[in-house]
Design goal:
This protein has one domain (about 1-229). The chain is globular, with a radius of gyration of 18 Å. About 35% of the residues are buried. The protein has eight helices and no strands. Helix 3 (about 30-50) crosses helix 4 and helix 4 runs antiparallel to helix 5 (about 95-125). About 75% of the residues lie in helices and about 0% in strands. By secondary structure, the protein is mainly α.
């Protein structure tokens, strides 16, 4: 764990060479360490996310948020591997997947840093039994959307720097970075919708998953939160 903390600290200090060494590291540890960071930090942020509705939902979300990050990372790695060939990237698929896992580990660490603030914010809002619960629910939802978006932007920006270090001859334009960011947000947002609830609707029972997880979209939900707020 101290060695893992040191390597993660180098990544947080925006040293691309540290990320390159991690991506090219042979053995099982190169896979397990970013997964461990995602699991631990995702669980911390998930607990803060579900705290507004009930302690049971906080437990559920602490289990589900790492799963959301894993699934989104896998989907992105497949797309990056295909798109990377068009950019001249010569990375094997395994290294491409480790780049994505490391960027998600960075995003999870940023979210874990937000957890105390947003957890306190959730507990300071009107509770689910308050007449103004809907307004509190929408405000909390928009706060989490903003936090996740910020973490994603930071992770993708660093990911682009790592790829330039891994393969200096590849074409890395701003449009490609925007494409990666959009892919992160679109894929992650829709998977998150299928795995809801996250912070809990005040008039619905606490549950691990909704009875109809594929009904509706994430974007409709965000539009309704903005409209009602």
């Amino acid at each position: 764990m101290p060695a893992l903390a040191g390597r993660m600290g180098d990544v947080l200090q925006m040293r691309p060479q540290a990320a390159v060494r991690w991506v090219r590291r042979a053995g099982l540890a190169g896979w397990l360490e970013p997964l461990l960071v995602i699991a631990l930090c995702g669980a911390v942020y998930g607990g803060a996310m579900g705290a507004w509705r009930a302690p049971l939902l906080a437990l559920y979300v602490a289990l589900k948020l790492p799963l959301l990050l894993f699934l989104t990372a896998l989907g992105n790695a497949l797309a990056y591997g295909l798109w990377g060939r068009r950019l001249g990237l010569t990375l094997p698929f395994a290294e491409c997947l480790r780049v994505v896992l490391l960027s998600f580990a960075l995003a999870a660490l940023v979210l874990a840093g937000f957890a105390p603030v947003l957890g306190y914010f959730a507990l300071a809002l009107q509770g689910p039994t308050d007449p103004r619960a809907l307004q509190a629910h929408n405000l909390l939802g928009l706060a989490h959307v903003a936090a996740v978006a910020l973490a994603g932007v930071l992770a993708v920006r660093e990911q682009a720097r790592w790829l330039r270090e891994l393969d200096p001859h590849a074409r890395m334009s701003g449009a490609v970075v925007l494409f990666w960011l959009a892919l992160n947000l679109v894929l992650g947002a829709q998977i998150s919708w299928n795995l809801r609830p996250w912070f809990g609707t005040h008039y619905l029972e606490v549950a691990f998953l909704r009875p109809h997880p594929f009904a509706g979209t994430f974007y409709e939900s965000v539009f309704r939160m903005i409209f009602h707020f």
